[in-house]
Amino acid sequence: MIPPGGTIGILGGGQLGRMLALAAAQLGYRCHIFDPNTDSPAADISAAFTCAPWSDRNAMAHFAAGCDVVTYEFENVPVGPLAFIEPGKLLPGARALEVAQDRLSEKSFCQDQGGRPAPYVQVDSAEDLTAAIGRIGAPGILKTRREGYDGKGQWRIDSEREAGGFRLPSSGLVYEGLVRFSGEFSVILVRGHDGEVRFWDSPQNVHEGGILARSSLPASPVIAGQVPAARELAGRIAAALGYVGVMTCEFFATAEGPVFNEMAPRVHNSGHWTIEGAVTSQFENHVRAICGLPLGDTALVHPRVEMRNLIGRDIDQAAAILAEPGAHLHHYGKGEAREGRKMGHVTKVSA
User: Fold this and answer.
1) DSSP state letter for 26
2) Residue 87's pLDDT band (boundaries 50, 70, 90)?
């Protein structure tokens, strides 16, 4: 166990790191942020900040040496430099990153645990894409295997003819068949050092333009009926990875049952509602898990909860949001409010 007063290193300095640092401070921990970007919302409220490229091995080693435990707030941290962190100090481990960073590996790993992703085919050439459409059909989604998020690195292909004129952005792609679903939902869990697993209620998610727009609870009855099977898979994935911390798996609710979409080995946007809507937030439970503390209660504390992302100029509505009954504003303290940039979120709770 790492007692209060210890230092938690966080790889990545975005809003997830910021909320982790706030939860850590509440439990008496200091946080040290490592991020290549000078504009870091997490560093603004943390005890220390190392601004260096991921490839700076000396900076990484020095950073890790000053931390009692190291975690990460996004899954695209390069795995190579993490070799300079003492074994066992990085939680969750690097294996979770290796799986989640490559969509092809992620889907294969899911299948190995008994899960069912959307039909998919590896694509490395125009010929591969034509063959994939012939095998799976169209419409479908062509995705980069690495570094796509919030709708980036994804292209809808509506027909084989359209694919014939499509200029492939790169090699290292995967083509997925389009899934017919009645709703999207997340399974958010926390797993401790001893293997104990706790789940939060699953929110129903709505995406707009590839970006999560809102998460709400309770989910529809159709989704609620598929949560047990989805939880079982998520638990198997966490166990197979020897996972410690908060992990999220996203699913489609379909007529044939839950279809796995993707996993995030970290705290997740669809779990932001837990700050006001659950006994223990995902951020606090992540800190508890990696520090070896008892896990907190994940039960709902309000009958209805909705989290809405504030994208771009939505943040200009901050004053009006604060006037709404039951509304809790989280401003990330970022600079320019660009289109598609998450600037904050608001959680509304009600009876």
Assistant:
1) H
2) confident
Distance from C-alpha of 234 to C-alpha of 80, rounded to nearest angstrom: 26
Tell me the C-alpha distance between 175 and 125, whole Å: 11
Same-domain status, 239 and 309? yes
Residue 47 and residue 81: Cα distance in Å, rounded? 23
**Burial call 2-19: b when 16+ CB within 10 Å, e when fewer:** beeeebbbbbbbbbbbbb
Cβ neighbours for 40, distance < 8 A, ≥ 6 positions apart:
13, 14, 17, 33, 49, 51
At 151-176, the pLDDT tens digits run 567 888 887 777 666 677 777 899 99
**pTM for this model (two decimals):** 0.95
Rounded Cα distance, 94 and 127, in Å: 34
- Is the same domain home to 294 and 213? yes
Q: Give the residue numbers spanning the domain of 315.
A: 183-350
Is 103 inside any structural domain? Answer: no
Here the tokens at position 80 are 């190579």
Under DSSP, is residue 104 helix (H, G, I), strand (E, B) or coil? helix
Q: 342 and 193, same structural domain?
A: yes
State how far the Cα of 54 lies from the Cα of 301, in Å rounded to an integer.
Answer: 40
Question: Same domain, yes or no, for 242 and 306?
Answer: yes
